[in-house]
Design a protein that fits this description.
Mean pLDDT: 97
Number of strands: 12
Order of helices and strands: EEHHEEEEEEHHEEEE
Structural class: mainly beta
Shape: globular
Low-confidence stretches: none
Distance between the termini: 37 Å
Number of helices: 4
Helix content: 10-25%
């Protein structure tokens, strides 16, 4: 029988073991893109919870912590019923962003997915960004490591974009912060792509969250597919503004 453990190292690196379940996989029986986003954001939340800072506590102290940008490299996507280790740690924050690194590996230690993300501190009432120097609920780390994924940063959107899909933000898309959960955008992206592109073996993925999508809003999914560069740029726009921008690269 498999046994799944969770623990913190002395340097506050957080480890959690898990199985990859059938419902987390795409039709190739590999971990889906939205599940990569969900798994990594959930482990960040769980890291804080086990250090005494659950979401309710953070809200009481005047903080939402919202993922802003993420970048991942897919060395090999884990498959159904694979025992995986998900590891995360905080890195030295920037003035307006908390920084976090992720590693997903197999039971044998094979590197599967690596990446990192930036998170914004937001005042729950004023809905304004809070400087990270005001987040004093835990010791601030000075740790900085090299990342083998693409850098997070501005995504250059081509002028020529093709409309692939229109969808409505439904109740099941919304999380406890009152807006579309970050992992749902991974599903929006993959649902919009033509099947022959959705089933490419992607090596890298970046996403920038621009403006939260709310219940009932209409979202248009636009894309530019560059076969020569083996790159797909996908943008989600609501009727009022850009909601997210992303890039996918394949072999």
């Amino acid at each position: 029988m498999d046994e799944f453990k969770q623990w913190h190292d002395e340097d506050l690196t957080f480890h959690t073991e898990s199985n990859v379940y059938f419902s987390q996989c795409n039709r190739r029986q590999e971990l889906s893109l939205n599940e990569v986003l969900r798994l990594t954001s959930d482990i960040a939340v769980e890291d804080y919870r086990q250090r005494g800072m659950d979401r309710e506590f953070l809200v009481e102290k005047g903080f939402y912590i919202l993922v802003s940008r993420s970048a991942f490299r897919f060395h090999r996507l884990p498959h159904e019923n694979e025992h995986i280790m998900v590891t995360t740690w905080e890195e030295k924050p920037e003035a307006l962003q908390l920084m976090r690194t992720y590693e997903i590996s197999s039971k044998s230690g094979e590197k599967l997915i690596t990446g990192y993300s930036s998170w914004l501190l937001v005042d729950p009432v004023a809905r304004r960004i809070v400087p990270t120097k005001k987040f004093t609920l835990r010791p601030e780390t000075t740790k900085q490591t090299e990342h083998d994924s693409m850098k997070i940063g501005k995504i250059l959107v081509p002028e020529e974009m093709q409309l692939l899909d229109r969808r409505t933000i439904h109740y099941s898309d919304i999380d406890g912060n009152g807006h579309t959960n970050n992992s749902r955008y991974g599903a929006f992206i993959m649902d919009a792509l033509p099947v022959e592109y959705a089933e490419k073996h992607f090596t890298d993925f970046r996403i920038n969250y621009a403006k939260e999508a709310m219940l009932g809003e209409k979202m248009s999914i636009l894309a530019n597919i560059d076969d020569a560069a083996k790159k797909i740029t996908v943008v989600g726009k609501t009727e009022s503004d850009v909601s997210f921008e992303s890039e996918l690269y394949w072999k």
